[in-house]
Amino acid sequence: MKKYKILISDYDGTLCNSQNFISKNNLLAIDGFIKRGGIFVLCSGRATDGISKILLSQNFNGLLASFNGAVLYDLNEKKIIFSNGISGEMLCKIATYLSDKGLNFHVYPEEGFICPKPTKYSKLYEKLTGVKPIFDDNPLKTIKESNLVSPKVLVFDDKDKLDLYFEEIKNLTPDCEVSRSTDNMIDINLKGVNKGSACKMIAEYFGATIEDVIGVGDAGNDYAMIEQAGLSMAVSNATEEIKELADIVLPVSNDQDAIAYIIENYCI
Q1: Contact partners, residue 199, CB within 8 Å, separation at least 6
Q2: Do residues 44 and 22 make contact, with C-beta atoms less than 8 angstroms apart?
């Protein structure tokens, strides 16, 4: 059986357990994998500044693909390797639509996140990620005046509202990728920017091909990664959509050291 040198993992619901941290067994397995010459990359929909702080606090430092692959960041070197965001008329069109529908949304400058007003979701997002809000009752004006380039737009609101507007948001512009990461979150990225394209970019960066990559995830924003990876895996707690798409459905969940299991059984 082929042993893989590159492993790309989602964070929430995959590497991260239900207590919102990386288990000791997973960390030890990743460390051993890297010492044997393996390449481990975390690929998350989260913002760079928030997820990087969480990872470093848990002694994880390596490559991070944040904002669903819009940014590739080296935690060791503290530098951005690649970034590709939404800007100009496209970002204004998205922000105008979301504002008109009364949907709570976030856009991302270099640090923090801009949202129209404090809500239970902005408070929850800050608590979950550690990323500080910048409240702006006229975000459209700010976007225009600052020429903001946002790695993604996050719509974070009631499930019923997102159910109602999801298809409209998907069809809002053909130049964007739209995915549902949770019942309460919709991620909007630039067209061609997703976890699948991140897998290709990472493979090329290390002189490999997508066929040399294991991709593992659990939710809707992992779809492109599961579709593209040379060997795709779904943790046992994944959605049915991801399980049906994956090459392998693991017998273990994110609470059962799924990444350590993959490294032990499928990696060098």
Answers
A1: 8, 43, 69, 210, 213, 215, 225, 228, 229
A2: no
d(CA 105, CA 75): 27
pLDDT tens-digit profile, the chain (268 residues): 899 999 999 999 999 999 999 999 999 999 999 999 999 999 999 999 899 999 999 999 889 999 999 999 999 899 999 899 999 999 999 999 999 999 999 999 989 999 999 999 999 999 988 899 999 999 999 999 999 999 999 999 999 999 999 999 999 989 999 998 899 999 999 999 999 999 999 999 999 999 999 999 999 899 999 999 999 999 999 999 999 999 999 999 999 999 999 999 999 9
Query: Rounded to the nearest 5°, which phi and psi values hold at 95?
Result: -65, -40
How long is the chain? 268
Nearest to 155 by CA among 96, 228, 105: 105
Residue type, 166: F
Which tokens hold the place of 36? 């044997």
Task: Count CB neighbours of 257 within 10 A.
Answer: 22
E-strand spans in 10-87?
A: 39-43, 63-66, 71-74, 79-83
